[in-house]
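Budget justification, computational time. The allocation requested in the original proposal was used primarily to generate structure tokens for proteins on the priority list. As evidence of use, we reproduce two of the resulting records. The first is shown immediately below.
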Amino acid sequence: MGTSKLTKIREWVSLTAQNPVEAMDRVLTVVDVKSDKMFVTPPDYKPVTYDSVWDTLLALGNFDGDEIAAEAAALEDEIRKASDALRDAPINPIHSADFALARICYLATRVAQPGVVLETGVAYGVTSAFILSALEKNGDGVLHSIDLPPLGRNVDQFVGALIPDAVRHRWRLYRGVTKRVLPKLLSQVGTVDMFVHDSLHTYRNIKFELQRVTPQLKPGAIVIADDIDENPAFEEWEAETSLAFSGVVQEERKDSMLGIAIMPQ
């Protein structure tokens, strides 16, 4: 359902007195989005197939692809049912991840066996739930998530609402925009085994996140970025970064693409 524009305006006016820094961050976010629409030209990506990415990830280790696919399918059913209870919740469902992205994140987590996963953007936590469930299946690892939820009454309590209780002990949530939170978080966690971008999908923000995290990616680390097709940030990062693999995939239920890359060993 989401929150009405009038409610958001009222929430922002109240926020200016309580937290002027966050209020300004939200204004700058709007400016960034409008700037992209006016000045940024979308790239001409040539997507690869979902199955080819699945096979590439499976080749990273000795895993049963059918077994992992069954695990992801069962979790997808669980998350779909839980999503039905959130129809009247304040975060617009448009912010929820496509299940193609979620399944790729699940497979990547299972085969790469990461100890440190860093994610930007949470919303109801579709992707977070898949990553955390895969970490739990692995028996190791922590997911660090950065999120600034949209304006709305009591909206913070819905962030990550779809994450199963049984896997929340592996989750660390940091509130704020990535330009403020990401540098500090990277200094805390050190190296990163897997990075997932799913926050503000503007040229400036995607480029910032990818460039900032790259020096701290471990050999063989996996990078996944959602909604990359509106600007060339991911394409430029691919060109300037040494990669063992990269590809772009058309999502299933969204008219957008995700990018995936694997760092060299």
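The second record produced under the same allocation is shown here.
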Amino acid sequence: MISWRYVVPTLFTVAAMMAGFYSLVMTAAGNYLVAAQMIMLSMLLDGFDGNVARLLKGTTKFGAELDTYVDMTSFGIAPALLVYQAVLNQFGWPGFVLACAIVVSGVMRLSRFRIKDPFRGQRGFQGLPITVNACWLSMFIFVSESGLYQSERLVLHAGPLAAVVWTCTILFLVLQVSNIRYPKPTKALIGFVPCIIVITFLFLKMQLAVAAATGILVSCFIYSFITPLFPKHADLTAILDDVEEEEPEPTLRMP
């Protein structure tokens, strides 16, 4: 008989997959704002499943594998389709190539993650997590679709902002398949609470939502380019480099 301790976290994982799929549906319907919201909702639910599983002592290998497919759908394919439909299709074949690169980099990142990290990210990441680029892309689309800003400087198909957005996106794709070490920012449940609050703001009044989206974008930039410079990563690197000498924890589910 399957225990409820294993069922409850899996329900969160399935809900995260459904949110990712609904993002694809909304992108196809041209509702890019809701599509971006659904990517972030999927991210919230994806964070819940791991935290709930550890809290209930209900982690499983099945949950860890299922979570990987959610990541690919919600944080690889969904944001790639969203940015292609919203912006990149205006660039012709280079835009299509960049959208494909988002998917391919995500697949490579997740495939390597499954093979090389028996701790499932609980002791840090090798390479930038796929969720960071998903946040970066979806939140820029969200802000541009919010209707609060009517300025040519804030468009994503031309100008200084577009140059920054797509340059950082390309760097993120490289960092995803790099050997640079990153910490897991939401390992403890208390560290996950700010994420819950910020993502909830995305579904409230638009002024609050845009402020929350802006905060997420700043956090993505700092986490990607500043965090690896901290000295504490030396210890993290040593731990993960010696991981083969330790007994793995095969039931951990969160990447």
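A brief technical remark on that second record: Residues 123 and 240 are 7 Å apart (CA to CA).
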